[in-house]
Design brief:
two-stranded antiparallel ribbon, globular, single chain, 4-stranded parallel sheet, about 10% strand, alpha/beta
Length: about 290
């Protein structure tokens, strides 16, 4: 399951995570930092610009040229076979590394890889305590907590293709985490959401170094300050956010660690630990 031995100077750098784990936060930071490195200091965060930065590989328009006919976009097997070609085209279209968001697990699906290792330069993998993820996921998808717990424990879990995007495959939370982190490699940098909160300078500096952004401490500090959860909440309240589903009041809801202590019942905590305990233990998430 290893992509490469170390991050490469060309290809796709994956900004990977299970849904609701902090992917947007990392993208916002990297977008702000990149603008600074290009000589454009950003003082007011534009969330829609962030949405286009690190855009995913799921847009239907990317797939149509590699399908037998436009209607085949609803054929899961046809999309699976086209996905590596789409990713290869994205990689070949850039002279250097190109950052792409993904919620796909690093596994094969319907006979094809969800992540084309041959055109991958490396990855930043963001993970978050599943006890908190389940709360955010329930709000985001309009599910009960119990339904979200079941969804996170379902092997092979995936979304459906819609009018804009092809499906993606998360599988269970544990399989997702294990697929990206189970065999350590210098090409993939695992980052805990909780560490981004607790020690942002250290962690975001590590992310910048991993994706080969030669930023100064001042540039990193500015990008961190501009992309705090409170600043992103404020930006969404003022101008909205393209990635917010219509049924949600807001995309950036709380963003803090440890919500589960006030929200989940003992039975719900036990169910999550029972299904996700092995990977939780690896990353210090087992409740004491």
């Amino acid at each position: 399951m290893i992509l490469l031995d170390a991050i490469q100077p060309r290809g796709i750098v994956w900004l990977a995570s299970y849904p609701k784990s902090g992917n947007t936060w990392v993208r916002a930071f990297l977008y702000t930092l990149l603008m600074s490195l290009l000589g454009t200091r950003v003082d007011n965060l534009d969330l829609d610009a962030v949405a286009y930065f690190g855009e995913s590989d799921r847009l239907i328009e990317y797939y149509v040229p590699y399908l037998p006919d436009p209607g085949a976009v609803r054929d899961r097997a046809a999309v699976a076979m086209a996905r590596p070609k789409v990713q290869a085209a994205i990689a070949s279209g850039s002279p250097g590394p190109v950052m792409i968001k993904t919620h796909n697990a690093l596994i094969d699906y319907l006979g094809a890889p969800l992540v084309n290792r041959a055109v991958s330069a490396g990855a930043v993998y963001v993970l978050r305590n599943p006890l908190d993820v389940v709360i955010s996921l329930s709000h985001f998808r309009g599910l009960t907590i119990d339904a979200a717990i079941e969804d996170m424990a379902t092997a092979g879990a995936s979304t459906e293709t819609n009018d804009e995007d092809v499906y993606f495959v998360t599988s269970s939370w544990s399989e997702h985490v294990a697929s990206w982190t189970g065999r350590p490699t210098d090409a993939i940098l695992p980052v805990r959401y909780e560490d981004l909160l607790a020690k942002p300078t250290e962690m975001f500096t590590a992310i910048a170094a991993h994706v080969r952004m030669p930023a100064t401490p001042e540039q990193i500090a500015h990008a961190i300050e501009l992309t705090t959860f409170e600043r992103m909440q404020k930006a969404e309240a003022e101008k909205g956010f393209l990635e917010k589903p219509p049924h949600l009041e807001r995309f950036f809801r709380e963003g803090r660690a440890g919500q589960w202590r006030e929200t989940l019942t003992t039975a719900q905590i036990e169910r999550i630990v029972a299904t996700q305990g092995e990977q939780m233990a690896r990353f210090g998430y087992l409740p004491t």
